[in-house]
Amino acid sequence: MMSAASQQQQQETTTTVAAQQATMAAAAAAYSAHRRSGSASSNSSAKRAPSSPRRTPHVLNTLERFIHEHDGDRPIASVLIANNGLGAVKFIRSIRAYSHQMLGHDRAITLIAMATPEDLGVNAEHVRLADFFVDVPGGSNVNNYANVRLIVATARRVGADAVWPGWGHASEDPSLPTALDDADIAFLGPPSGPMAALGDKVGSSILAQAAGVPTIPWSGSNVEFHNSTIEIPDDVYRSACVDDAESCVRACKAIGYPVMIKASWGGGGKGIRRAHGDEEVRTMFPQVAGEVPRSPIFVMKLAPKSRHLEVQLLCDKHGGVCALHTRDCSVQRRHQKIIEEGPATIAPDEVLRSMENAACALARHVGYVGAATCEYLYAIETGEFFFLELNPRLQVEHPVSESISGVNIPASQLLIAMGIPLHRMPELRRLYGLEPVFEKTFDVVDYEDGGGDDGDDDDDESGSSNSNEEDAPLAVLRRSNVAPRVGSSGPTLLRSWPSSSSIGSASAITSFQVAGTSTTNWVSAAPLPPSGHCVAVRITSEDPNDGFKPTSGAIAEISFTPTPSVWGYFSVRGTAGGGGVHTYADSQFGHVFARGANRAEAISNMRFALANLRIRGEVRHIVDYVNDTILGSDDFSKDNTHHTGWLDNRIASNVKALSPSWDVAVVCGAIVKATQAMLARRAAFEQAVSRGQTLVAEDGVNSAGEAMDLHRAVDVELMIEDVKYSLRVARTAVRNFQITLLLGDDKSDGGAPKAASLVMTVPAMSTPLKDGGMLIEYGGTTYGVHWEEEAAVGTRLFVDDRTVLLKNAAEDPTVFRTV
């Protein structure tokens, strides 16, 4: 049953190899012509610049010695990153930090990025950070990051020792670890068997019950399975499912309403419906079946007012399994996480420990290897917890666990793939109170400068390959800032360790941290208490005022200042000529973290960080919404009473982020619009004079040809939050303005308004900024103001950390529009 699910998922995420080959060949041809012509794009030039240290044989030999000293069995010197965006950026930074800390060289591991034309078009940060990048086809992820055959062929072509899948894309496709294993390439994730078993919701729940993990009442609650393997007989599997609407009704009555009807192969909001009675079940069942065709369907009890709690796991190749504390990810919008925090504080410590033990038991039961997350529902009223799923991959929110445990999780994935046991990993030893690491110095033998056997990649260097050329589309390596292998004419990566014949007499002294050797019983071992509290906020390019619709486009500025208690990372560069979020990119382009001695302090630090986070560009974002409506809510911050449906309820109630006060929005909008009109008037005047044209009265002079008044008052109409404001803006000095709010429509003479029309007049000052914005002084306060035009909608005004939309006249609610 597991293999059928895997085959179904693989068929849905694989494109034709012919299309891949054509696109990759075109990229290779274009790149070759590009090199021959001597020209280079900004991206290519940046990648070929020797901006990073060269990897010397001494560094590679140090890495080999480190692996040997920690009981590893597989050297990994290069990793292909089969992901993009935020995941790829985080992995690169994590590996670099660990390499610097443990090996004394941040580039000891060569990191190779995959880059689509869309990634290059927005100056994607992961492409800039990687040592190399490889051109891959663009479009949806089935053409690139979710294409298993392309990933494997690319990894073979560039000589990568391992592949890191990240999250999303192909990270949960069981065919990827199988194909990589066949190619003798390490996979920084679990074997295909546990991945397939855990990726199936029905199968994983049966296995969880067999491992003694509590499950919420569901259609398979009475299923008994005591086999020690992960192969579930078909009759056992089917007994946990519902085959039609009537069997579904019977299962729901036995469980008790309300229920969730779910497709085992569903995900991302597909194949899931809530039902409160028999008739709703009869209506919802065919909808679930239609959204995920051929998927088995099951039913589970709906747990109202529950929290979504998680346990972060690490599992080695030798049966070792340990937990890195808990997380709380209950703030969700349509099952998509917005805020994560850790450790969980809603449940007692003994309950959290039981969650950790149950998660470890399940991972051991299925023979899991790598990083995983076990997810639970915690019933607030009863204090019970129930198994949801065990995600067979790294999660976006893993940095929360890193903060409270002190463990670099992506680096741990790499060490596990190298065969290093958990008890030999220095950071885990610290967490579990084992004897500390110590510094060890070695006299490391270096390589000769020339000649010698360099492993099993001679075919690659000569341009031939033992692999089927039809399965290996040409991969174009960009950037040659890595020392080539001996005898190589290009930037081919070292893929294997040299034989003894290639070792010369040169030597160097090196030192690195070595972990203790004592073992521990991971079943009974308990980690030290969490280090403080951490809160994380996902920064996404969604518009909270438009149903959280995803947006894309250029990002002109990201201004974020980290502090000792606040840090973060972004997948785009917010600078002039920087990047953006393209159509096929994930909407999350940033992740911000704040820590404190306790939960209240961490939340306070996060609120301060978000208030000072500045993002300008064509994309919308959720920063203001999160800071105002979530972190600023007593339900979340003080009372800690929120639940998994809490945010959706607030959205349905039309709770919105705060905007600038109405008077600040009006004054700033009026000055922006008036300045634009005055600049346009001056440009028209200068153009007319340059052509020797005679100005007419409508252009600002009278019939006698008197001088034009370029600073004449400008009438402005603003539509803000469906309220129309009529204003007259006069420039009284170079930087000074006078804004008058009017009543009535008497604005024909362009002079002073009639007394009956005047509501109020306020002074303001404006100072232009080099980035095109303004500093506007009003009411004793200075505001930084920028703006972006949104086609057919209006002008988006950014006032410090707040935004407001100045709608076009066509957006007047009294005017009918046609589409």
What this model shows, in words?
The chain has 819 residues and is of the alpha+beta class. The chain has an 8-stranded antiparallel β-sheet with strand order 13-12-9-10-11-17-23-21, sandwiched between helices. An 8-stranded antiparallel β-sheet has the order 25-26-27-28-29-30-31-32, covered by helices on one side. Strand 6 and strand 7 form a beta hairpin. Mean pLDDT is 80; it is low at 1-54, 445-507, 699-707, 746-758 and 813-819.
Q: N-to-C terminal Cα separation, in Å?
A: 49 Å
**What is the gyration radius calculated from CA atoms?**
31 Å
- Helix % is 25-40%
- Report low-confidence residues grouped into runs of 5 or more: 1-54, 445-507, 699-707, 746-758, 813-819
Number of helical elements: 24
Report the principal-axis shape. globular
Strand neighbour order, sheet with most strands: 13-12-9-10-11-17-23-21
Mean pLDDT: 80
- Major sheet size, sense and barrel closure: 8 strands, antiparallel
User: What's the β-strand tally?
Assistant: 32
Strand content: 25-35%
Which structural category do the helix and sheet elements fall into?
alpha+beta
